[in-house]
Amino acid sequence: MYKEFSVMHKEFAVMHKEFANLYKALDGLTWKLIGAAGLLVSAVYFIATQAKP
């Protein structure tokens, strides 16, 4: 029984590392999306304020 718990513990440790890698990747992607959205909003604002009717 202890051996089974030991194996489960090791599997959970591996799973924890995989989730940590996933969270790091999502964090990087989130900031890239926020930056792209900010640039898009800035470009639209610039065009809207500079356009003459």
What's the story with the biggest beta sheet?
none
The tally of strands reads: 0
Radius of gyration: 23 Å
Q: Could you name the ranges where pLDDT drops below 50 across 5 or more consecutive residues?
A: none
- Broad structural category: mainly alpha
Order of helices and strands: H
β-strand percent reads under 5%
Q: Fraction of residues in helices?
A: over 70%
Looking at how many chains there are and whether they match, the oligomeric state comes to: single chain
**How does the overall form come out from the CA principal axes?**
rod-shaped
Number of helical segments?
A: 1
- Look at the structure and give the mean pLDDT: 92
Whole-Å distance between the termini?
A: 79 Å
Structural notes for this entry:
With 53 residues, the chain is mainly α. It is built from one helix and no strands. The N and C termini lie far apart (79 Å).
Sum this structure up briefly.
The chain is mainly α and about 55 residues long.
Short descriptors:
53 residues; 1 helix; mainly alpha; single chain
Compile the SSE list and pairings:
Layout: H1 2-50
